[in-house]
Design a protein that fits this description.
The chain is mostly helical and 432 residues long. The chain contains 15 helices and no strands.
Length: 432
């Protein structure tokens, strides 16, 4: 396969302006633009439009939410086979076709005459999410940017983090004039107009040969992927991501109820959630410095540990309000780091030779957790007697994630070839 990729790269027909070994020009701003649009339309528009959907159709809020959760679950299942295509052929076909599917599926949602068609539209949208969200964008950056991927990944995640800031107010404004159906139709058309041509035109650079990482010990690609996915570091890493993901999403879902239970009014509670978003941006900006000064697994442990401490403080400290707002910002910083930890975990440990598949497998527990957390967190809060008790459970989950992360380091089992490189941070891999 590497020889085939080399021939394609040498041909240069895909992009004559791209010099082999350099990141292709125009790709990073293109991915930033399409991540803002894809996340904004496919994900963040839904919570704004959900009340209007329920009021207009008479469908229950739980069923409407279940359709959206079904999309997230399908995106987790579809991500693995899509990762195989990404590893083999690059992101252009996957992300372009995913953008087309996204526009069409949301038009189906907008015109759905009944709940069955509404579910069908969202299930199709789940496939589009897998093809357009972070995972294919991360795969593109990991392969094209190589050792410089941390800065590029940070830019992409910063763009994704702005999606709610841009599209939540836009969606609200559209709803006032066009209702939920008209809003989804207009958002679907705008998504198609922006993302389809951008993905088709800017992702044309040759797909460079992959680089094996320190824990890759075979040139048999399928066998290597299977061995890595079953290895102790990978299994522990998946478990850590699952626990940390549940903790992080649980905080977001339950932060406003907790603030209300602490005596904060609705405006202050909203500010807490907003500061959590600000913290995510700050955390992503600071991640590059953290990566430069820590090893592959070592950087994961303190991030999850700090998360456990901040979430636990929420559960135990009733105030004052300003301190709760500081804790919300700190939790947001941890969440911002979590996104980049997930994005760099595979390439830092096992290289880019099967990044698409391995990162998709790693994303499955996180995506499933994202889908079920709204229901699970609400149920736990009710069973445990309130949000403070729930936050203690979430803090414990983050602490377990930190402990699991201790076992996720890999060791160099063979000397690197001339084509292999150090991790994205520039540090040598962690010792076992």
């Amino acid at each position: 396969m590497a020889r085939e990729v080399d021939r394609e790269a040498d041909d240069g027909s895909a992009d004559p302006l791209h010099r082999q070994g350099d990141p292709p020009r125009g790709v990073l701003p293109a991915l930033c633009a399409t991540q803002i649009t894809s996340w904004g339309v496919l994900y963040y528009a839904f919570p704004v439009l959900r009340p209007g959907i329920v009021a207009d159709t008479g469908w229950s809020s739980s069923l409407v939410t279940a359709a959206f959760s079904a999309a997230l679950l399908l995106s987790a299942a579809v991500g693995v086979p899509l990762g195989r295509l990404l590893d083999r052929n690059g992101p252009r076909a996957v992300m372009t076709s995913g953008s087309v599917l996204a526009a069409v599926s949301l038009l189906v949602v907008a015109m759905a005459p009944n709940l069955l068609v509404f579910f069908a539209g969202w299930i199709a949208a789940g496939g589009a999410m897998a093809a357009t969200f972070y995972q294919p964008a991360f795969a593109a950056v990991a392969r094209w940017w190589g050792e410089d991927r941390v800065k590029a990944l940070t830019a992409v995640t910063l763009a994704g983090g702005l999606a709610s800031t841009v599209f939540a107010p836009v969606t609200e404004a559209l709803t006032d004039t066009f209702g939920w159906r008209g809003s989804y139709a207009l958002l679907a058309l705008s998504l198609g107009v922006i993302t389809v041509p951008v993905h088709a035109l800017f992702l044309r650079a040759p797909w460079p040969p992959a680089v094996s990482g320190p824990a890759t010990t075979t040139t048999d690609e399928a066998g290597s992927v299977g061995r890595i996915a079953k290895s102790r570091p990978f299994v522990l890493l998946a478990g850590a991501m699952l626990m940390a993901g549940f903790a992080g999403w649980g905080v977001l879902i339950s932060l406003i109820p907790l603030m209300n239970e602490r005596g904060a009014d609705s405006s202050t509670a909203a500010w807490a959630l907003a500061l959590c978003g600000v913290g995510q941006i700050v955390g992503r900006i600071l991640y590059g410095r953290l990566a430069r000064h820590t090893g592959i697994a070592v950087r994961t442990v303190p991030v999850f540990g700090v998360g456990a401490g901040a979430i636990g403080a929420f559960a135990l400290i009733p105030g004052p309000v300003w301190l709760l707002l500081v804790l919300a910002t700190l939790v947001g910083m941890v969440r911002g780091n979590f996104t980049l930890l997930q994005a760099t975990a595979v390439a830092d440990r096992w290289g880019t030779h099967a990044y698409g598949r391995l990162s998709a497998v790693l994303a499955v527990p996180v995506t499933v957790t994202t889908a079920i957390t709204p229901f699970a967190a609400t149920a736990l809060a009710s069973i445990l007697g309130g949000s403070p008790s729930l936050f203690l459970v979430l803090a414990l989950c983050s602490a377990v994630a930190a402990v699991l992360a201790l076992g996720t380091s890999t060791q160099r089992t063979e000397a690197p070839s001339s084509g292999q490189s150090r991790s994205a941070s520039g540090d040598a891999p962690d010792s076992p």
